[in-house]
Structures are given as C-alpha cells and as structure tokens.
Design brief:
The chain has 216 residues and is an alpha+beta fold. It is built from 6 helices and 10 strands. Strand 1, helix 1 and strand 2 form a beta-alpha-beta unit.
Length: 216
Amino acid sequence: MQILPYSINTGQVNMDVDKQLLESAISEQLQEPIFRLYGWNPPCVSLGRNQDEGFLDKEFLKSNNIDVVRRLTGGRALLHDDEITYSFVCPVSYLRNGEHVVSSYKEISQILIDKFKLLGIELEFGGTRHINPKLDYCMLISTGADLCYKNKKLIGSAQCRKNGYILQHGSILYDYDRDLLKKVFHEDIDTDSIISIKQINNKLTKNEIIEILSKG
C-alpha cells in the first residue's frame, strides 16, 4: 500500500488531490492501493455530490472564514474543522468483495479498526438508523458502514466509483464545536449519537494518531 504523507490544505485542494489520485489510478491501472491523510485550513463545509446547498448561510460562513466545497462522493454535508481525514483509492478487484458496496466499505474501514486498536480504542461498525430526511449534517446519520465507539459515531465515510476503481474517504472527529455545528447546519446536534477522540482519550494527540495511521 502506498501511504502519502499527512498535509493540511484548503478544502478545494483536498478534493482536487483526491480526484487526481482516483484519475491517476485509473489511467495508470494501479493495482496497489493509495492511503492518504489530511487536514483542512481554513475550516470547510463539504457537500455531498448531489446535496442541495440551500440550507447554507453563505454570509455566516464567509464571516467565520469557513469555506465550502463539493465532494466527488455522495452523502450529506460535513464541517471539516478539528479532524483527521483519510482517503483510500484502490481497484474494485483489490478487495475480496469489492463489487458489494457495504462489504467494500467494511473491508477498507477494517484498516482503521486495526490501527485504532493499537491506540487502545476499540471501534465497531454502527447499526443502521432511520434516516431523517431533514438532517443535513452527515455525522447525525448512521449506516452499517460507519465506525463507532460504544455505539457513538466517530468516523463517517463516503465512496465514489469510476471505471472499476473506488475512492473512499472519511472524517475522523478529533474534536468538535457543538455550537458552531448548530449554527452551520441549523439543527440540534445530538451528542448522544456522536463522539470525538478528545472525549475518548483527551491525552491522545493528533500527531500520535497520524503516526499510527501512517505506518504500513
């Protein structure tokens, strides 16, 4: 597996790099997966590929130096702020059950389960909950492919597929500002359904997590 070094970029650069990795893998017919870790500066709202952006208050975002970008992947919006983001690109054939969407999510996410176990954090796949069509914030929605800690969502992921290749990327909550989330998404943030690394172990640093995740 090719592991790219952690970097911090604007939202548009991050999405452009993920797109370039996918396109390069396709054009070069790469058989080796690529794993990338990155952060965001300034904070950024990413919208799912087909998500309506009507809920966004563009003036509020601008005044708070929050960017907006659209992802290649589906799903609903995220505020990328105090987090670690990963992306994984591979041919469908690399996975045992690559043609099956949920199975492929779980197979890729198993990498994260194994890595976090080294940090003393036991993650498990979440159960599917009824999706409220009014919710715009992705972390409040639970699917069978999410990674949870004690039934609370820690990592949300999304995929896109093109020409026999998969791009999966996801958000690992290091910490979050509940009040800011409420202002961005105009909805109550149910802290009983999500959790951050800081809440699990407030002594664990981002650099420690990045170091473990970056090891082959």
